[in-house]
Amino acid sequence: MNYAAHVTAGAAAGIGISYASLRFHYNLSPVLVTVPCFLAAALPDIDHPKSHLGRRFRFLSKTLFKAFGHRTFTHSLLFCFLMGYLFMQLHTSVGIGVFCGILSHILLDMLTPFSKGVALLYPIKKRFGIFMS
Ligand SMILES: [Zn+2]
């Protein structure tokens, strides 16, 4: 999937989670969920130097690519939980938004046809995907 698809899905996920939290009286802030969800939905691809974020944060992107490869650590549940926990220190809604944005990215990458899948359980290197080549 590309940048536009990921951030669109992230925004949709954020709106859905905000609606669900209001519906079930959990009281998450819709803005503090949706905006981080939208932004975090692009974050996992920072591990690829030619991605939208990779071109803007070239040094970090190349370092991550050399250290882990593409669709490994930043596309794992470990990264998802780490970033969610980290941002939850700012605000619960932000942490949930970041977690859901990264998770939406991972799920979309798993649905990408003819890909190599994602290392969802990194550091276990097995890759998961629906239509893997
Ligand atoms: Zn990706």
UniProtKB/TrEMBL annotation:
It comes from the Bacteria. The chain crosses the membrane at residues 30-47, 94-122. The keyword Lyase does not apply. Keywords: Membrane, Transmembrane, Transmembrane helix. Signal peptide: none annotated. This is Inner membrane protein. It comes from [Clostridium] polysaccharolyticum.
